[in-house]
Amino acid sequence: MPSALTLSGSIRTGSFNKKLQDAVDGKLATAGVAVNSISLADFDMPIFNEDLEPHAVPEAAGRLAELFRTHDIVFIATPEYNGGLPPLMVNTIAWLSRQKPSPFRHTVFGIGGVSSGRYGTIWAQSHLRDSLSKIGALVVPTLLGVGPHSSAFSPDGQIAEAGAVQKIDQMVSELTHFSRGGI
Ligand SMILES: Cc1cc2nc3c(=O)[nH]c(=O)nc-3n(C[C@H](O)[C@H](O)[C@H](O)COP(=O)(O)O)c2cc1C
């Protein structure tokens, strides 16, 4: 059975990106994938600073890197801050990029995001796709941008827009069909 690790770039109570993560979790599980849905709140890491290497590397960096290496799929839901990535996301990628062997070269990545704006994190996703690609990740093509969040979710936290549901289905289809083929 394929396995997926899912996470969100927001640890805010009531995060819309966590709701997107939950929606993707449900669809992956329905597709027969074993889902490990985590919160970055459980992987505490200081702001990256090369002075912390090698004596003060947070154990969470190694723990998270190992999770990336041991799942077939990684799905990341990210908010957009000021047309870019939130600091939690940037910091997490910085720490992961320093772990050996690379946590980015085994799995297939899907990215998505929810924002308050109607462009639905397209700039943040562009940054994330570009950064992940430059460090060896294979990111599937679907652009899963959801926004504005005020109309995208029903009061019970479910995705309410047919277009977003369709994009999640497409994302899950890609994530379960693409493979790095062991390279
Ligand atoms: C510092 C900051 C910058 C933001 N910049 C953007 C932005 O550039 N585009 C946008 O659509 N929303 C922006 N927002 C609003 C977020 O999309 C909104 O807060 C969203 O709900 C955050 O995701 P979350 O609910 O998962 O925490 C910003 C919010 C914050 C706090």
Report on this model:
This protein is of the alpha/beta class and 183 residues long. It has one domain: Flavodoxin domain (Rossmann fold), CATH 3.40.50.360. 38% of the residues lie in helices and 15% in strands. The chain has 6 helices and 6 strands; from the N terminus they run E-H-E-H-E-H-E-H-E-E-H-H. Helix 3 links the parallel strand 3 and strand 4. The longest helix has 16 residues. The model has no long low-confidence stretch (mean pLDDT 96).
Features:
FMN_Rdtase-like_dom, Rossmann fold, six-stranded parallel β-sheet, 6 helices, 6 strands, NAD(P)H-dep_reductase, 183 residues, single chain, Flavoprotein-like_sf, alpha/beta
Class by SSE composition: alpha/beta
Number of strands: 6
User: Helix coverage percent of residues?
Assistant: 25-40%
Judging from the principal axes of the Cα atoms, what is the shape?
Answer: globular
Bound molecules: flavin mononucleotide
Low-confidence stretches: none
Summarize the helices and strands and which ones pair or pack:
Blueprint: E1 3-8, H1 16-30, E2 34-37, H2 59-69, E3 73-77, H3 87-97, E4 108-114, H4 122-134, E5 138-139, E6 144-146, H5 149-152, H6 162-177
Parallel strand pairs: 1-2, 1-3, 3-4, 4-5, 4-6
Helix pairs in contact: 1-6
The protein binds flavin mononucleotide.
Short synopsis of the structure:
The protein is of the alpha/beta class and 183 residues long. Helices cover 38% and strands 15% of the residues. β4, α4 and β5 form a beta-alpha-beta unit.
